[in-house]
Each structure stands twice: as C-alpha cells, then as structure tokens.
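CO-FOLDING WORKSHEET

Operator: S.A.
Ligand of interest: zinc ion
Run index: 223
Mode: holo prediction, single chain
Checklist:
[x] sequence pasted
[x] SMILES validated
[ ] output reviewed
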Amino acid sequence: MYTGGFYPYAAPEEYWAYWSRYIWINRYLDAPEPVYQDLLALVKHKDYFVLTTNVDHCFQRAGFDKRRLFYTQGDYGLFQCSGPCCQETWDNEAAVRQMVERQRDMRIPTELIPRCPRCGEPLTINLRSDDKFVQDEGWYAAARRYEDFVRRHKGGAVLYLELGVGFNTPGIIKYNFWRQTAQNPNAFYACINTGQAAVPPEISKRGLCLNTDIKHALNAIKM
Ligand SMILES: [Zn+2]
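OUTPUT RECEIVED:
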C-alpha cells in the first residue's frame, strides 16, 4: 500500500480513489492485532512518552494519553492545503468516507476532490514528504511536550524502547535514542526489530537487541 502511494496517478479522481481506501483501512479501521493495547498495558502506570513516525493514529485509538504522544510526520486523518496557503489542518473522516463509498471503476466523482477552504487549491494529506508539510498548533504543542519530557528526565533512569524503527528515517528515533543513551549513564536502550535490531558499540553494555516480532516480544514480557 505504501509503495502504491507514490504511483503517478493519471487524474485526481484516480489518486483519491486509491488514497481514500488507503486512509480508510490504515487510519479508520482497527489494527488486526492488539499490539498497541499490549504496549499500553506495560507502560500506562509509568511516566512514559511516545515519539513516533507512524501516521495511522493507532497509539491514540489504543488509549495512549495524547499529551504523551508526538506524531512527528503527520496524520492520515488530516488534510492540509497543497500550497500551502496556511498552517492549518482539517479532519478528513467524512470526506474520505464519501470517497470510499461513492467511487466507481477506481475513480471518485469529480465534485468530491477536496479543495482548500481558504484558497480553493487542492487539499493534500498532512504527511511529511517535502518542505510543504504543515506543522499546525497541535504539532508544535506535542513537540514542546516531548522536549519538556526529555528535559525532565535528563540524567534519570530512562529506558529508550525502540520498536520497529528501520533505516528509512533513522534520525528521528533511532539515532536520537542512541545519542541520548550515550549521554546518560543511567539510561538503557532496547531495540525490537525483525532483521534490523542493532546497537552501536559505544552503548552495547547498556543495550539490548531483540531480533523478533514486536507482538511476540510483548507477549513474552506479559507472561
Ligand atoms: Zn489553501
């Protein structure tokens, strides 16, 4: 699905037929496994914070406290202006539902193509892919809460638990966690990832790699 999002669709009607289904499945339908709920059960009585590049809202739907979440890369559930003419975002659930329900032969009706309420240009999905990504007030508020959390725990006993982060955008979570662990002798780094679990030598004494499925790892911890 992710790869299909980069296809050069011939018309906006076709583009939105694909993207509305993609958003509906990944953003509005429930995840197939209770992995997020299992993770929440493990951390909810602790002073936790979630830093994520996921854009599917699964943490919030599983019940994570939204004041303890920072979605750095956007949200499938929000539209932004393609210009952009403004730093605003809009909930897209009703619009996406219409596109899913009314599409025929892989095209949505032309009148459903979403347009910016401010300038009339096409809307797009609030995802970071270039410098047009809109960081609205909610994004900045979450960024500040994350910075506060890091500041409050500087030098403290912190577990940096990295789940399923690959080498697509390692700068946001992986390198950040490695650096913070290296700078704090009371910190510990754990990485759960099938096939890509690694810890650099500088922090290997305070690091753990689990080369396995996150679901299996969390189930083992629960027992
Ligand atoms: Zn606009």
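REVIEW:
The two ends are 34 Å apart (CA to CA).
The beta strands are 50-52, 69-71, 74-81, 90-91, 123-127, 159-163, 188-192, 207-210.
[x] output reviewed
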